[in-house]
Design goal:
The complex is a heterodimer of chains A (341) and B (279). Chain A is an alpha/beta fold and 341 residues long. In chain A, a hairpin with a 2-residue loop joins strand 10 (253-260) and strand 11. Chain A has one domain (2-339). Chain A has helices at residues 11-19, 96-109, 117-124, 174-178, 191-203, 218-221, 242-246, 291-310, 320-324, 331-339; strands at 2-7, 23-30, 33-38, 64-73, 76-81, 89-94, 126-131, 158-162, 166-171, 253-260, 263-270. Chain B folds into 2 domains: 8-101, Beta Barrel (Elongation Factor Tu (Ef-tu), domain 3), CATH 2.40.30.10; 107-238, Nucleotide-binding domain of ferredoxin-NADP reductase (FNR) module (Rossmann fold, 3-Layer(aba) Sandwich). Helix content of chain B is 25%, strand content 30%. Chain B contains 9 helices and 15 strands. A 7-stranded mixed beta sheet of chain B has the order 10-9-8-7-11-12-15, with helices on both faces. In chain B, strands 4-3-6-1-2-5 form a 6-stranded antiparallel beta sheet. A two-stranded antiparallel sheet of chain B has the order 13-14. The longest helix of chain B has 13 residues, at 215-227. Classes of the chains: A alpha/beta (341), B alpha/beta (279). Chains A and B meet through strand 4, strand 5, helix 3, strand 10 and strand 11 of A and strand 6 and strand 13 of B.
């Protein structure tokens, strides 16, 4: 594995170099918030930030995505590919929690029996450059409680660690290494740099923190489907869907057709299990009629069903739902309350 | 890479109104491309998404049997946006089919056994597929005695009337058709499906039951079979839930750790007990 050092003042130029061959997205200040978005030509991404308000999942799994086009004319039906041409893409400055979310999304969208060609194409054409978290966690972060870590390389093609004056750049995958020539002549990382990286990882490790591992609630979730506990957590919930919108691992979607005249497009767009209509059948029957069932579904899906199916928790501890829930429902409290049952 | 969201083009060859209320029709479809027909290999119990561009898609059980090549049949009740548009179609209309999706009736498990099939109302569609599959000459000896109980609210609401008459003539299937309420012309049995099951009392030895119907019918029929000694492991049913992608990705039909579209729709009651599924 190639490990190189990048002097901090070289970074903007390097990113400009990437932009010559790919669409580059990165963190940028927008008013009060840091947003993950397309970088304008010459724009430098932020490197000092906790995390972006939006999860970068939208670049692999867009909020609205065309699936195919159709034309109905004189009783005839013709189908055509969607218009979008997926470009080579670089996501720069992804935090380890969000990079990990891509690995989890792969488990859903890239399966042996059914592969999602839209997600897979974007995934193949996207290079993830992760920026390790070297500062103390923000108030809502809890990646280590859900089997992540602030310096985890999981999901990264290239990982950058801020060592002070330079970045340590680790080219972790074949896809990451393909970009190496674009980075120019970078000095190899020396023992001092690697030792510094280890120190940072240790400093930021979460040993001794108070949050217990979330996996521990799985056996409790296995038995509490009908427990009155579920009556206690949902009443504040406004069903606004913010948590599912900002969550890096939420991936529920709707498929619908939009027609104008003879031509139309079949699209998919983000949907939320927290909305009342999500499971409403045409008959009028709704297996999840109240927010109680829907909240139970959210918790069970992320911390039990996904584990049953894929062996992993479907939460990366990014804390966005905690930060942005308008009524301050804190999933960490829900988890610790369950742990006490 | 193949695209599981892309519907296969088909044409409507025939439309049969099944019931006197006219809101259930069987659509006989054929593939526009020979290749698609050869690749569409399905088993009884599976479903497909019927795709009407401009309206949407509807997951419907396949009512034909793979032993009847050359076409697919779907029996559809007019209920919402997509099915209403489907009911407006005329012969010759082009539409899409995505499938086959889901799992099938547990054919291997049924082999060598007596099979009791209990159907109610318009849930009978994939049961009809199963029956035709088993009755097919080359398949018949794989299965033991076949007992079928099929009930509808009124005689006019019975599906596949011609087929029921044909099956009644055969000696390799014991068919019991019943209605909740007869009419002036009805000569047959009158009685609720659970009661008819109780009368027939099919023995449990080496037998598997398949029950498919409205929730109330299933709920009242289950105890009849439990009293006969059946267990949750040898009674199967087919579940329904709102679906969109049909391939276990969009999350809509997720129940417990299963997706009705991908891990079902066929489940044994033992499997359903683990899902905490609520009818």
């Amino acid at each position: 594995m190639e490990k190189r050092l990048i002097k901090k003042d070289l970074l903007p130029g390097l990113i400009g170099g990437l932009a010559a061959e790919a669409a580059v997205y990165g963190p940028a200040q927008e008013g009060d918030y840091v947003i993950f978005r397309a970088l304008r030509p010459g724009e430098e991404p932020l490197v000092e930030f906790a995390n972006t308000r939006n999860a970068p999942k939208q670049f692999l799994f867009p909020p609205r995505e065309e699936l195919m086009r159709y034309t109905r004319l004189d009783g005839d039906l013709t189908l055509a590919d969607r218009q979008e041409q997926v470009q080579e893409t670089v996501l720069f400055g992804v935090r380890p929690c969000d990079a990990r979310s891509f690995v989890l999304m792969d488990m859903v969208f890239d399966q042996e029996k059914y592969g999602d060609p839209y997600y897979i194409e974007r995934r193949q054409k996207t290079t993830i450059i992760t920026l390790a978290c070297v500062h103390p966690p923000s108030a809502a972060c809890f990646c280590a409680a859900v089997e992540g870590s602030p310096t985890s390389p999981e999901g990264a093609d290239i990982m950058l660690t801020d060592l002070g004056e330079v970045y340590l750049a680790e080219f972790l995958t074949a896809k990451g290494e393909r970009w190496l020539p674009r980075f120019g002549d970078l000095p190899a990382a020396d023992a001092a740099a690697l030792a510094r990286q280890k120190d940072i990882a240790l400093q930021n490790s979460w040993e001794g923190r108070t949050l217990k591992p979330t996996r521990e609630i799985k056996p409790i979730l296995d038995r509490i489907f009908d427990h009155p506990f579920w009556d206690t957590i949902h009443s504040k919930c406004l069903q606004c869907g913010t948590c599912t919108y900002l969550c890096p691992t939420c991936h529920c979607f709707d498929i619908s057709d939009e027609t104008k005249g003879n031509d139309g497009v079949r699209i998919r767009n983000w949907d939320s299990c927290m909305y009342p209509l999500f499971t409403l059948a045409t008959s009028g029957h709704n297996p999840r009629p109240t927010q109680k069932e829907r909240w139970r579904q959210r918790v069970m899906h992320k911390f039990k069903f996904f584990v049953d199916n894929f062996g992993n928790l479907a939460c990366v501890g990014c804390g966005r739902c905690v930060k942005h829930c308008p009524v301050n429902i804190d999933i960490r409290k829900v988890i610790s309350d369950i742990a006490a049952l | 890479m193949s695209n599981p969201y892309l519907p296969i083009p088909v044409v409507v060859d025939e439309i049969i109104t099944e019931v006197d209320t006219k809101d259930i029709k069987t659509f006989r479809l054929s593939f526009l491309n020979r290749e698609d027909e050869a690749n569409f290999r399905y088993l009884p119990g599976q479903f497909a998404e019927l795709s009407l561009f401009g309206k949407g898609e509807s997951p419907i059980g396949i009512a034909s049997s793979p032993t009847q090549p050359g076409h697919l049949e779907f029996t559809v009740q007019k209920a919402g946006i997509v099915t209403s548009a489907l009911h407006e179609l005329e012969v010759g209309a082009k539409m899409g089919v995505r499938g086959p999706l889901g799992n099938s009736w547990p054919l291997t498990y049924l082999e060598g056994k007596q099979v009791v099939i209990v159907g109610g109302g318009f849930a009978f569609t994939t049961l009809r597929s199963l029956i035709n599959y088993m009755l097919y000459e080359e398949n018949r000896q794989r299965f033991g005695r076949i007992i079928v109980v099929y009930g509808a609210r009124t005689p006019g609401l019975l599906l596949y009337k011609k087929e029921l008459a044909a099956w009644a003539e055969r000696d390799d299937i014991d068919l019991y058709v019943t209605v909740d309420r007869g009419d002036a012309d009805w000569q047959g049995r009158v009685g609720f499906v659970p009661a008819v099951c109780k009368d027939i009392a099919p023995a449990v030895e080496n037998t598997v039951a398949v029950i498919c119907g409205p929730p109330i019918m299933v709920r009242l029929t289950k105890p009849v079979f439990f009293d006969l000694g059946y267990t949750t492991e040898n009674i199967f049913t087919s579940l329904e839930m709102r679906m969109k992608c049909g391939i276990g990705k969009c999350g809509r039909c997720n129940v417990g750790s299963k997706y009705i579209c991908k891990d079902g729709p066929v489940f044994s009651f033992a499997e359903i007990d683990q899902l905490s599924y609520e009818f």
